[in-house]
Structure formats: structure tokens, C-alpha cells
Specification:
Layout: H1 4-11, H2 14-28, H3 30-43, H4 50-64, H5 80-93, H6 99-113
């Protein structure tokens, strides 16, 4: 029996996360990208507990996987499932999201969106 985590780890890594963000920044919109970045900065924070990191990795993994419930190429609706997954994860780990995570996300948004 194959281990699904092996396939997931092939798809999800820091490089694929940044590649997806940059490639989809405009089409996904600021709301989706800001949530993904906020979760990313929370993920790399040493203070974030392991259980919260697993929630974050799951949400970010869904964001970068090429197969979605709603394909990303569909105008307007394409990133709605990603937005929901990211927002849900933020709700679960909200107590561990620091203002510095939000600020770093906003700084990156300014670079990409002006």
C-alpha cells in the first residue's frame, strides 16, 4: 500500500509554494495571496506548535496542488475553494498568527501588487 504523504511531499515544498504564489498572484487576487503568505510566515515561526503547522501545511498544500475541487483556470470561481481552505486554516490557528506574520505578508503584497 502506498503512503499518500510521499506523494504530498513531492508536490508540497517551499519552492513549489513560492512558484505557485508568484504565478497566480494576479489571478488569485490579494485576498487569497495574503492568506497564503500569512499562513506561510506562521508556519516558519518556531513558536508555532506542531499541530498548527500540520493544519497550515494541509491548507497550503491544497493551494499549490495542481488538482482542485474547482479548477484555478475558471474565472472568478477558480480560487474560491483555495480561499475557503486558507481562511478555514487561519480560523483554526488564529491564536498562533502574530502581527509580524500579517505584516510580512502585507510587505510581500506591496512588492508584488504595488
Amino acid at each position: 500500500m502506498s503512503d499518500g504523504s510521499n506523494e504530498f511531499s513531492k508536490q508540497y515544498n517551499e519552492s513549489s509554494f513560492w512558484k505557485k504564489l508568484k504565478a497566480s498572484a494576479v489571478s488569485a487576487g490579494k485576498g487569497v495571496i495574503e492568506k497564503a503568505l500569512t499562513l506561510y510566515y506562521c508556519l516558519i515561526d518556531r513558536d508555532t506548535p506542531a499541530w498548527a503547522k500540520s493544519v497550515i501545511v494541509s491548507a497550503l498544500g491544497y493551494f499549490i496542488l495542481p488538482i482542485d475541487l474547482i479548477p484555478d483556470l475558471i474565472p472568478v470561481a477558480g480560487y474560491s475553494d483555495d480561499f475557503v481552505a486558507l481562511a478555514f486554516a487561519i480560523g483554526i490557528v488564529a491564536a498562533h498568527i502574530k502581527s509580524e506574520h500579517k505584516e510580512k505578508a502585507k510587505e510581500q503584497l506591496k512588492i508584488w501588487f504595488g
